[in-house]
Amino acid sequence: MSKGNHIIKGRGAQLNVSNKFDAQNHEYRDDFLNYCALEGEEAQDSKTSLIDTFPKTIVNKVNSPDIRMGFSLNPYQGCEHGCVYCYARNSHEYWGYSAGLDFEQKILVKRNAVNLLEKKLQSPRWEAVPIVLSGNTDCYQPIEKKLKITRHLLQTFLKYKHPVGIITKNALIQRDIDILRELAADNLVHVNLSITSLDEEIRRLLEPRTASVKKRLETLEKLSSANIPVSVMMAPIIPGINSHEVLPLVKAISEKGALGVGYTMVRLNGAIGGIFTDWIKKTMPDRADKVLHQIQECHGGNLNDSVYGRRMRGSGTIAEQVEQQFRIARKKYLSGRVKPDLNCHLHEQYKNGQLKLF
Questions:
Q1: What pTM did the predictor assign?
Q2: Domain 34-264 belongs to what architecture?
């Protein structure tokens, strides 16, 4: 498990928690960890491995009333970005892995994603509605630079004139501005760029393998300059860590061309509660208890709240203060900016990948 106060560089989670679906689990004994430390050895391999998968479907219906998307598509499962708070960690348990380090180190690659999407878009029964890339894990995580699955998916959306949304915190999206510009010309794309903090040190600790704050602001500006509709998600808000940054962050993104801003309050559901607690006690020991208590205050005394309509925004004084800050920030810095509706009317004419003349 964890190695005392030793920090695993380049990773968010500092341990592998037990998979709730496993009948058995294992842990690293202190004598073994001490031996590894004395010998200068790692107790476990920290390298990233890719695991090829070939699912039967790729477009997922989203039933949560709290999430503003009807369908999502994730070319990868697991995410090397390593954001310690990530709600998607729990989904890795369904694949037989841990929500901890396994989530960051064992990346499942859906090699047939493009073919499955094309088959879906060609189906006579499919009626165009926005499909969001990265409803679960980031479609622009590091391995995308080599594999280009997301780029090929975007080319497919363009070919069939189908609306697509993107959520990412990686500057790699700049590579695909050529395709995004063409999609935007027909109102077929929205981008949500995740920027959690303006503090690079906080970014490095919370999200170790993501793009820097500077690169994300640069990405925002370049997308906006290319007339690609882009908004920002400040998610999650973690009281005691980034909750004081609402106004300065919204001011900064308004200057770079953002059309809007959204947020969620952190909630540490499932295995994430233990992962986050272990992480903050190692990386921020001086404020760990304060932060954890403030998170609990936002969720009725717990680290998580699963009640629809409340779980994403929280409750109590701190949550209300955050909501008020966003209301003020939007009015002051983003007033009058409107994100265009995605166009769902072109696709039917391009069911076969080309314009139907009759």
A1: 0.90
A2: Alpha-Beta Barrel (3.20)
